[in-house]
Automatic annotation (TrEMBL):
The chain crosses the membrane at residues 45-64, 76-97. It comes from candidate division TA06 bacterium DG_78. Keywords: Membrane, Signal, Transmembrane, Transmembrane helix. This is DUF5683 domain-containing protein. The keyword Signal applies. Residues 1-21 form the signal peptide.
């Protein structure tokens, strides 16, 4: 990948995170998973994005290395692991986009119980 296209990809990912909406587009998050960790960066989840991106890149590098060495068994094993990580990345990006902006903390003052008995 040329340096200019890499810069464009980085600028695109950063610019998408500048505008914080209440909900992210799940389809766009899944589409950005074509880039390693792209969906996670889109949903402002940087640590999982870095972990997924580095894992996908490392698996791809070693799969290519074993391909060049004609070690088919190791290459295929790494490609299956890469497919698993890619599937996890898709699912994580989809859930991250759907849950974006969700407030995890509950306000205890607004929680109440009520019992209604009817005869």
């Amino acid at each position: 990948m040329k340096k200019s296209s890499l810069c464009i990809v980085v600028i695109l990912l950063v610019s998408m995170n500048v505008v914080h909406a209440e909900e992210k587009n799940a389809n766009l998050a899944m589409l950005l998973c074509v880039l390693p960790g792209g969906g996670q960066f889109y949903t402002s989840r940087y640590i999982p994005g870095i972990v997924i991106a580095s894992t996908e890149i490392a698996l791809g590098y070693y799969a290519y290395k074993y391909h060049r060495e004609d070690n088919v068994e190791q290459r295929n094993s790494l490609l299956w692991w890469g497919l698993f990580v890619f599937g996890y990345s898709l699912a994580d990006a989809y859930v991250g986009a759907k849950m974006y902006g969700f407030d995890v903390e509950a306000d205890i003052d607004k929680i109440s119980f009520g019992i209604k008995l009817t005869w």
